[in-house]
Amino acid sequence: MSKKRKLPGGVDVVKVGDKIISLDGYLSKKSKPATKEEASTSTDTAQPAPSTTGSNGTGNEAKQKERDGTSKPLAKKPLNPSRWQKPRGTSGDGSGEYLKSRRELPLWNYQDEIRRVLRERDVLVVVGETGSGKSTQVPQFLYCEDWCQRRKVEVDDKEVFVGGMIAITQPRRVAATTLAYRVSREMGTPLNAQKNGGDSGSPALGNHQRGLVGYSVRFDHQVPRGTRVKFVTEGMLLQDLLRDPNLRQYSAIIIDEIHERSVDVDLLSGFLKQVLSGDKAGRGGVPLKVIIMSATADIGGIRRFFSDARDEETAIPSGESETESTHSGVEVLKIEGRQYPVDIIYSPKAVPDLQEALLKTIFKIHLHEPLPGDILAFLTGQEEIESVQKLIEEYAATLASNMPKVKVFPLFGQLSIEAQHEAFKPVKAAFTRKIVLATNIAETSVTVPGIRYVVDCGKAKVKEFRSRLGMESLLAKAISKSSATQRAGRAGRESAGKCYRLYTEETFDGLQPTDLPEILRNDVLGAVLTMKARGIDDVLSFPLMDRPSIESLEKALIHLHFLGAISGDGTITEMGRKMAFFPVSAPLGRVLLAAADPRYDCVLEVIDIIACITAGDDIFHQLQTEEVKEEVEEYRKELYRREGDLLTYLTTMQHYAAENSDRVGWCRQRRINVRNMRQAMNIRRQLRGLCMREKMLAEAPPPDPQPFAPIPPSQAETVVKCFMKGFALKTAMLAPDSSYITAHGKHVVAIHPSSVLHGQKKEAIMFLDHVFTQKNYAKKVSVIQANWIAEAFEED
DNA sequence: GAGCACTGC
Prior knowledge:
Layout: E1 13-16, E2 19-22, H1 36-39, H2 57-68, H3 93-103, H4 111-120, E3 123-128, H5 134-142, E4 151-155, E5 158-162, E6 165-170, H6 173-186, E7 213-217, E8 220-222, E9 229-233, H7 234-243, E10 250-255, H8 263-277, E11 289-294, H9 300-307, E12 323-324, E13 331-335, E14 342-346, H10 354-368, E15 374-378, H11 382-396, E16 405-411, H12 417-424, E17 432-438, H13 441-444, E18 451-456, E19 459-466, E20 471-478, H14 481-489, E21 497-501, H15 505-509, H16 525-533, H17 550-562, H18 574-581, H19 586-596, H20 603-613, H21 626-636, H22 645-658, H23 663-669, H24 674-693, H25 713-727, E22 731-734, E23 740-742, E24 748-751, E25 764-772, E26 776-784, H26 786-793
Parallel strand pairs: 3-11, 3-13, 6-9, 6-10, 7-9, 10-11, 14-21, 15-17, 15-18, 16-17, 18-21, 20-25, 24-26
Antiparallel strand pairs: 1-2, 4-5, 7-8, 12-13, 19-20, 22-23, 22-25, 23-24, 25-26
Helix pairs in contact: 5-6, 7-8, 16-17, 16-18, 18-19, 19-20, 19-25, 20-22, 20-24
This protein binds one DNA strand of 9 nucleotides through helix 7, helix 13, strand 19 and helix 24.
């Protein structure tokens, strides 16, 4: 019958930074070589090729690969020793132990081709499926190339150095840091893991040592002297661009995971395209190489975008079958991945009740499929996960005693790190199947080990910005084909698996091929300010892979003008430059600048509040049961302020900073998110430093801990007025029928239940967030006076 | 009476 699960003991997941990462096949030398995908963030499996039978490609494609012998991670390929050259410049010792696993990566055999293409041209697109090793190997293949060496050139009659380093961008911090550790070991100059002492120490700088590999993410920089390969977050490279529009320290930029299409990666792509097609005078004639890497083959638009950036005449016909050269001249290299086959099982007809279908499917798997083999179900949100968990547990209790048991784990972003951790551990009890109920967090951000069955409800909650209404919505929508493929792939990471789709094949065929890029879903206010601050005068003609509507760009320009970031003719103002320089949103940047105005003079208070509201989701955990609520509210009482949420955050930060013995215990007692509070302290320290440098603070703030002293009401009023400088458009007045009507747009809004002002009626309110979910909600709310609204619209 | 996921010199 079923035997006890055999899993690597204890070390298959590890916490790095804020994230829990599967290290399966990463630490153990005898298991398959790790790639970034396996180590942390996974990426899409390739888009299925259009199939004439209409069936989904994942299974077929994987089966094809199995026949080719390429889908088995442990399959030994005949190795050709002449293909292997040890990279020059490595110390040798460290890389040797990784060599064997590196040589087994699908990408290994493409290294000559990759080098050849980049010697001849400036742009290369690499499509590498999960496990191809592209993120770890491509920079190693390139850094010894002649074009990748630093050289002295003349720019504007001055001698400067250009190039020498490769930057490789990642959408997430955790991916950037784990990849850097991995590659530094492979290259024989390991980075020292430094424990950044939470919120008490200063950020690790770690540039005392020498080495070839480094990383740079917010609050955490490890860039050894002599670094040639630097892993960075996308936002970090954008910030580099602010100081150095020509990216002079780099010989190449590798954009990884471009298929995720964050706003930052879209902006970076635009700037890189400009550098590629510019005259290179700012780089002393030294070209910048750009390598675009995607996990999905659906990159037509991306390739077209970069094709236009280069000279048509240099197009070189490709002799290799693996590379595609088109008339437009950008070569695309496709690398097979390593994925076990996954059978796709569609629902034969549309399901009327998703929850019922989900329960039936889960128990069908549980009662008919052998152990071991855990189940991962994709749902839309916390509420749904919790109700399904209850139903599963109730039904499981009725099963006969000779049936396998189940253990259910919820998995969503707002869960504490400990609770998330539970979902990654193998279940200890014998004869038990693990069922993980997850949001989209399990699609890209984390990898749950042991999964053999995936159940996909076909939906996900997405945030969208309605520029016409000036508000966001967060609603469940149908996922894309790419997303469905990615979800299915989660069943085939350790062995062959099955994916049950709770929708029909026809429904799948009708899905959008890819998700809407973020730049088409978000407020473009920040993106436009980013462009303006980097010298883009005409934002309407800035090259973007997907262009937001003119209307939304215009709305953003008007908003920026209102905030004082651009002048009447659209040029950036001094204030706008400063706003772009701060790592906060444009309206919050405006608030920070107002706080430094002698009329307000509350920089430290505003920093404390901004730190709390930008440290992730709400620092206050929601209170589930009445008992917990009663107990916790007693402790929280001293934090809550009648003026609203902003002053409540300030009071919380001040109490937290004053607490010097047991901050974790202090947070636990008040059900405050420890992780976010630490992050808030990091942000607070960073913003204080920036404000000192910008001379917005006359003197250095007193060191913690300072005794807690409540802010007097008059000063509290000043702080709220300061926020009005950034959020005057997000205000509402109480109507005779007791509803709140927004000043701008005249919509009805309700105060969100998470607000301390929920259920209260005040003359007027200001709020920082405006989101439609169940209702039109105002979040992060403060009490204001009606006449402040008019005041805030007055010119300085 | 309610909470998709990331991220910033």
